[in-house]
Amino acid sequence: MAIGDADPYADGYGYLWYAKTHRVADRDVPVRFASGNGGNKIYIVPSYRLVVAITSSAYGRGYGQRRSQAILLAILAALPVGDTGRGASDR
To answer: Is residue 86 a contact partner of residue 49, using CB atoms and an 8 Å limit?
Structure first.
């Protein structure tokens, strides 16, 4: 279900998971994530075979979501362009 017009943190939602494509440097990085109160997140980045779990205690505060997204974007920006984390045996 498309929700991007109503939710700045996600493009879509379904089966209790959200979807968002982040533009990082010159690449689009699709991300799936579960979201909890206060900025608690589980991010899955299939193209990098990466899972990021963030725990937070900013319950009921708007900055928790922004802070978790900023952490994810910093991690994605640190990943090498063109290297999707797949080993030779995965190709």
So the answer is: yes
